[in-house]
Predict the 3D structure of the following.
Amino acid sequence: MHGPVQPGWLLVALCAATGAYCLLRMRSTVEEQRRAAGGEALMGFGMALMAVPAAALAPPRWAWTGYAAVFGAAALRALWEARTRPHHLHHLVGAAAMVYMAATMAASPGPHGHGAHEGHGGSGTPLVTGVLLLYFTGYVLWAGARLLPVPALAGAGAPARAGGAGWGDRPEVARACRLSMGIAMVAMLLTL
C-alpha cells in the first residue's frame, strides 16, 4: 500500500499478530470458532503482506492478481457460509475489500502497482473506496463499543467459566482481534 514506512511496519506487525492469534484460536473445541478463526487468520496474514511498505518490498504485478484470486476464493466461501450463518457477511465484505484493494494495486500505474494513484482524475475518493471506508469505520465503532465493560447487574456475579476455558477461547480477545483488523482495514483503505 502507499504510505509512510514506519506506520506501514506497525500495520504489518498488528495484522501478523492478529493472524497468529487467530491460528491459535483454530485449536478451539468449538467448531464455529475454529471455522471463523481460519478465515480471520487468512485475513490477518493477507493484510500483513499487503501492508508491507513499498520501500521495503515492491511485489510484481502478478502478486496482486494472486492476492485477488486468494481473497476471491475466500469471498466465495464466506458467501456460501452466509447462507446459514449471517454473521459471515462481514467476512464476505472483508474478503471483497481485499479483492478490491489488490485489483486496484494491480491496475495502479507505477512500478509494480505501488505508484501514485493517478487513475482517479483528481476527483477525490472513488465510490467503492468511500463505501468500504464507511462500512469499516462503522464496524470499528460498533466493535469497539462491544468491548466496553458492561456494569454487573445487582446481585449477579461474574459468569463462571466451566473447566476454565483456555485463553484462545476467550470471546473478548477474539472481538479485540476483529476490531484491530477493522482498524487496519480503515488504515489500508485510506492509503489506497
